[in-house]
Amino acid sequence: MLDFFSIATKGGLVLWSKAYSSAQSSPINNLIQEVLIEERSSTQIFYKDNYAIKWSFVNDLDLIFIAVYPKALGLTYIDTLLQAVSSQFSDHYGERIARKAGGIPQLKDWDVQFEALLQTIEDQDALSKKSKQPRKFEQTVGYTNTLAYAKAKPEDLKDSTKAALLDEDEFRRNVEMLKKKTASPRMGGRKGKGAKSPVASPVIGSDDIKKKSKEGRKWDGKISAKDAKSLDYSNSDMSDVVMADHLVDQRGMGQLSKDGTYNVADLEASDDEESYSDDESEEEYTKISARSLQAKKPVAASSGLMSFFKNMTGQKEMTEENLEPIMSKMKEHLINKNVAADIAQHLCDSVAKGLVGQTLGSFKSVQSHVKQSMETALKRILTPKTSVDLLRDIAQAQAEKRPYTIVFIGVNGVGKSTNLSKTAFWLLQNNLKVLIAACDTFRSGAVEQLRVHVRNLKALEQNAVVDLYEKGYGKDSAAIAKEAISSARLTGHDVVLIDTAGRMQDNDPLMRALAKLVTVNNPDKIIFVGEALVGNEAVDQLTKFNAALKDFSGLANPRHIDGMILTKFDTIDDKVGAALSMTYTTGQPILFVGTGQTYTDLKNMKVSHVVGSLLRE
Amino acid sequence: MSTSTLRSLIPDSLIIANNEYYTLLALLALLTLVGLAATFAFGAKKSSKNTILITGLPFAGKTVIHYLINHNRSVETITSIKENEANVVLTEGKSSVHIVDIPGHERLRFKFSEFMPIARAVVFVVDSATVARQTRLLAEYLYDILSNKHAQEERLPVLIACNKSDLITAFKKDRIQSLLEAEINKLRQTRTAALDTQDSEGNENVFLGFEGKDFAFQDLENEVDFIECSAEIKNVEDIKDWIAAVSS
User: Fold this and answer.
1) Rg, chain A, Cα only
2) Same domain, A359 and A403
3) Within this chain, do residues A530 and A462 fall inside the same structural domain, yes or no?
4) Do A402 and A488 belong together in one domain?
């Protein structure tokens, strides 16, 4: 079932882990690198190879709980397990971990506790699968395992234990009565019948049993009320008949009673939710939750006392409720900065998830704290995770004696050709020989535009080697690019810049053509050119371009966009949201930003500048 | 107007009963004390530069080394999301050293620059077994550290800890040094030729070493040391000694 469970700190220290199969910790590292660090933790589940991974945070202790299970199994109880484990773990060891911040806490007995918890939850899940009323069960199982349940209904729990005791007494009395009644053959027959229909039959008559269990509760009440009466009338025939019916009912319900004490637990369980859940685990679980309740109590009391001081120093815990208004304001703010709406939402969810449960330091407002963690999150997203040193890549290609190829792709009119020539200018300044391949064979004037650029570049640098490779209009662009690359190999050009026709992301035939160009030529870098003016559309463009490269390539390892150039960056003032939308969507860096009309207006993006602009009021 | 009429003008909620003054006073006194203590603690932490940064690529063994130095315990680790911090006394009688283990993941690496202003020295952990495959990544990170403004101004000493030296495939430290030098030699060409950043206030890119001469660590003004170690077999004594030496 469960493959691997791990409890770790955000610092990377594994506090406790248990492997149930030969799963290594590598899917966990993947989870961290691909989801948590990328601020994508607003998703709920992560699939890697054959594993599905779910996780939860306890932020005030900086803990992560990670459960790994086989993807094929689709276990439904993992959420419940994570929730139960995280609350119980932090109840038991929270203080110790907080005290030894950064240290290595000792975890006594945790193995046993975890096993008990896992067993309980697995059993409940198994039962819920057996029954044909999953909805009803899901409610009860899910609810009993949450801390909320334990908090909300401590009285109920006590009641049920009381009821259990009552039941025990009553049961004994009933048994005695039954012994007296055995003289009646009718009764004996009934009893036998009852014994044959055991508790294990819920599948067939779960409905009936449910009803019965409810009736049973009523009966309990009546019995205890009529206790005296039953004693009084024990000899009376009239009452005997009544009592007999009574007993039959009881027996049919709690057949396992012959095993002794566990019958009690069974009845108790039936009182609350289900009559046919596994007694042992049920009782164990109640014990556990009761224990955790007890553990919780003194904490709650002290927090009541401390809350006064905490409020005085502004130290308070962040909850979803008090974060909600601030996060929605933050989201609005990001959207105003031209961040795509759903990305703003994802990001805010993810940041909120990382904040819930944290306590604020003294003299710190929630707002400033949110802003601070948003800043860190933004920095994380915008910081490139791969090298953006294009010149180093080119040097590598030179060493391998092959031309370095870059394809510029994008929708119409974003500035592909313009920024291609700006890039060419920069490369020329570094004494590289550049060949520009005119693969926009579609729009009239595209080739001529590049020819003008080449002429200008030649005029700018006296001994610059920059040439245009063109075959006119209407030809297959993939073939032209191929020829350009092989010609560059012969002529000794260091870099081939491939200009493509602009296309809308929904234009299927053109997207196929682009995928073909990429597949045939396998360029070193695929650069997506996007406008900084774009808003929600950015996500759609990038996802569809990426999807086209993937779906239409027919390769086992399809290519994807390697980097982006953000153009018209000078026109947007501080509404730099597109930079965030694009990096978040692709996870790839923004290589350059276009900041003007001349060849020198190509810059490296400064992360701190963009983050600053995004958070500026 | 008598005081009673004046009082009646003020809403009841604003009038404080005499006994409540004491509580308020006591609280104010408490607050000032707490505030002072806090500023003192933080001020002291920032001013005396006793922070040692542990940096390096992911899976180099930074967190393991961190826990070995601070708790002398081998631990199991996963990729860090957050930096680990600890104060440790390395030599008896000396003041404690603040050790920070910076996550190695590319997206989190920027954190090292936030700690640079308070850094006393930098430990750069290298996985000796994979160094040949990762030379470029290593050199880029090391370049960023060495060319950092604070590293330049303060001439921060850098220790390159060649971890996992117990492995049979591990490179010797001399070989790692020459690999890194060759790669940084290439990098300083490309880095200085990179485009300016937007709103660039002067070129932050510095040229490491001497122009017209191949890059060598000994040309740097920073003291750069190489040692071999292995966290697997708890052999980090050299790192401890080095930290103790630079922080004394």
Assistant:
1) 35
2) no
3) yes
4) yes
Q: Where are the alpha helices (DSSP H) in A435-588?
A: 446-460, 477-491, 508-521, 537-551, 577-586
Closest CA to A394 of A488, A464, A471: A488
- Res A515 pLDDT > 90: yes
**Tell me, which fold does domain B48-247 have in CATH?**
Rossmann fold (3.40.50)
**Distances from the Cα of A394 to the Cα of A391, A432, A534, B144, B186, angstroms:** 5, 9, 31, 20, 11
**Which residue, A363, A412, A176, A241, is CA-closest to B31?**
A363
State how far the Cα of B211 lies from the Cα of A76, in Å rounded to an integer: 63
pLDDT tens figures, B137-160 = 999 999 999 988 888 888 999 999
For an interface test with B, give the residue of A4, A39, A358, A392 to mutate (most B CBs within 10 A).
A392
At A121-152, the pLDDT tens digits run 888 888 887 765 555 555 666 666 666 666 66
Question: Which residue of B28, B64, B79, B109 to mutate against A (max A Cβ within 10 Å)?
Answer: B79
CA atoms within 13 A on the CB side of A46: 23
Which residue shows structure tokens 């008949």?
A241
Give domain status of residue A301, yes or no: no
Residue A292: inside a domain: no
Q: What are phi and psi of A537, to 5 degrees?
A: -60, -25
Same domain, A425 and A562: yes
Q: Which helix (H) or strand (E) holds A345?
A: helix A341-355
Cβ atoms < 10 Å from Cβ of A214:
13
Supply the pLDDT for residue B6: 59
Strand order in the sheet with B119-127: B84-88, B97-101, B51-56, B119-127, B158-163, B224-228
Nearest CA in chain A to B84: A11
A81-110 residues touching B, CB cutoff 8 A: 102-104
Report which DSSP code applies to A523: -
Interface confidence (ipTM) of the complex? 0.77
Determine whether the interchain pair A383/B199 forms a contact, defined as Cβ–Cβ distance below 8 Å.
no
3-state secondary structure of A130: helix
Q: What DSSP assignment string belongs to A244-260?
A: HHHHHHHHHH-GGGGGS
Query: The tokens 């910076």 sit on which residue?
Result: B102
Q: Does B42 touch chain A (CB under 8 A)?
A: no
Residue type, B220: L
Is there a contact between A391 and B110 if contact means CB atoms under 8 Å apart? no
Distance CA A406, CA B35 (A): 57
pLDDT tens string B188-215: 888 888 888 776 554 466 788 888 889 9
* pLDDT surpasses 80 at B12: no
Tell whether A103 is covered by a domain: yes
Chain B hits for A312, CB-CB cut-off 8 Å, are: 27, 31
Distance linking the first and last C-alpha atoms of chain A? 50
Domain final residue pick, A324, A354, A382: A382
**A199-213, A536-550, B97-111: least confidently modelled range:** A199-213
Instruction: Give pLDDT, residue A268.
Output: 38
Q: How many CB atoms lie within 10 A of CB B83?
A: 22
Domains identified in chain A, total number: 4
Torsion A392-A394-A396-A399 (CA) sign? negative
Residues A410 and A558 in one domain: yes
In chain B, the residue whose alpha carbon lies closest to the alpha carbon of A314 is B31
B27, B67, B199 ranked by CB distance to A104: nearest: B67
What is the C-alpha to C-alpha distance for residues B58 and B65, in angstroms, rounded to an integer? 13
Q: Which of the residues B107, B192, B196 would you substitute to probe the A interface, choosing the one with the greatest number of A C-beta atoms within 10 Å?
A: B107
Q: Which residue of A has its CA nearest to B71?
A: A103
Q: A438: which strand partners? A: A499
Same-domain check for residues A372 and A513: no
Answer whether residue B172 shows pLDDT above 70.
yes
Instruction: Answer yes or no: do A110 and A243 share one domain.
Output: no
Asked if residue A294 is part of any domain, the answer here is no
